[in-house]
Design a protein that fits this description.
With 193 residues, this protein is mostly helical. It is 79% helix and 0% strand. The protein has one domain. The protein contains eight helices and no strands. The radius of gyration is 24 Å and the shape is elongated.
Length: 193
């Protein structure tokens, strides 16, 4: 039984309401974690890249002992950081696209329609790359190859392609609905609802 249904009876005390609030906070924390997962992955992989390259430089120039695996792993973590950065940029609607001229040359209504078409193209492109990324992963499982130094299966490295473009698809849809919600809210504010 859901906690809030249990609270509909007369015996519902402060403890039950507190429990509901706690569960609500858990849900909010989970949603926050999922919503920021791309950021956490990007921060972690970029930090790992910097750490591994630092270790490699110190090892190579101070101890005259290069660590081959550190360079290879840092390259892989950097690729993951860049692809997760794509999703982060989409979340904040900061992708590279030229919209300044649209707002100067066209009325807001027309420029918004052009940006909408651009978002649809981005969504279509990212969904296509998600599908083809999954196909590449299946072919890599069928015909495996590994990284030369570490022996890591390249499936793990190439997993970023469908993951990142799926995240980009989700972020594009999310931004679209946030724009629509914000526009509806602004319209309601204008007419005094």
């Amino acid at each position: 039984m859901l906690p809030f249904l249990a609270c509909m009876s007369r015996e519902c005390g402060e403890l039950d309401l507190f429990q509901l609030n706690k569960e609500g906070n858990k849900v909010k924390k989970f949603i926050y974690l999922i919503d920021n997962l791309d950021k956490y992955i990007a921060i972690g992989t970029l930090s790992a890249t910097v750490l591994l390259l630092g270790i490699q430089v110190v090892s190579r120039y101070l101890f005259r002992f290069p660590i081959a695996w550190a360079e290879e792993i840092s390259r892989f973590t950097f690729v993951w950081a860049v692809y997760m950065g794509v999703s982060m940029a989409a979340r904040k609607n900061e992708h590279i696209r030229v919209v300044a001229h649209l707002t100067l040359l066209f009325p807001k209504r027309i420029s918004n329609k052009i940006i909408f078409v651009s978002d649809i193209i981005t969504l279509t492109f990212s969904m296509i790359l998600t599908v083809f990324g999954v196909r590449v992963l299946f072919s890599m499982v069928e015909f495996p190859f590994t990284a030369p130094v570490t022996g890591i299966s390249m499936v793990w490295i190439y997993t970023i392609i469908p993951v990142a473009f799926l995240a980009l698809s989700i972020r594009t849809i999310q931004i679209f609905f946030l724009k629509e919600t914000a526009e509806d809210w602004l319209k309601q504010e204008e007419i005094g609802l």
